[in-house]
Amino acid sequence: MQHLSGQPNIVEFKDACEDKGSVYLVMELCGGGELLDRIIANGHYSDRAAATMCRAIVNVVHVCNLMGVLHRNLKLENFLLSDKSENAALKVLLISGSQYSFKKEIDIWSAGIMLYRLLSGVPPFWAETEKGIFDAILKGHIDFESEPLPSVSSSAKDLVQKMLTKDPKKRITDAQVLGSSQETNLKQLCKSM
Description:
CATH topology: Transferase(Phosphotransferase), domain 1
CATH superfamily: Transferase(Phosphotransferase) domain 1
Number of domains: 1
Number of helices: 7
Oligomer: single chain
């Protein structure tokens, strides 16, 4: 984790110590709580606010990929806010993983799940059981008709679709989302609002 220190969207590792039965990690304090709790409290985010948060999330994926690290557990509960303000910095907790067990495209899928939830307040795939959720994912239908999604911009919906493409070979990459080679959906989304 130390090789990722200094990244603005990653909770900083300060120190570690251990006793007979436990290892203790000392991390940067993020007093704003979990991003999931903020979504639950506030409902959904505007396109602009969701785009800003998505940029931070995908930036984490991009930095990790450049360092040869996969997070493998990207979810709203692992993103913390630096403080309680509306403009608090978004930071990811618990970086882990290796490229030997998962493909990097899984982190973009997870970021797409989070973007949908930021825009709608609910998960894109839902059912009463785990099997039902898996079946919904396999069907691949993403609901853009339920409120508040009809008012979400077409560029935001397009980005969600590209991030949640089932075939990892056809899924948009972190570099494409961030616009390293072309003006991308995320930049267009930020500019369109």
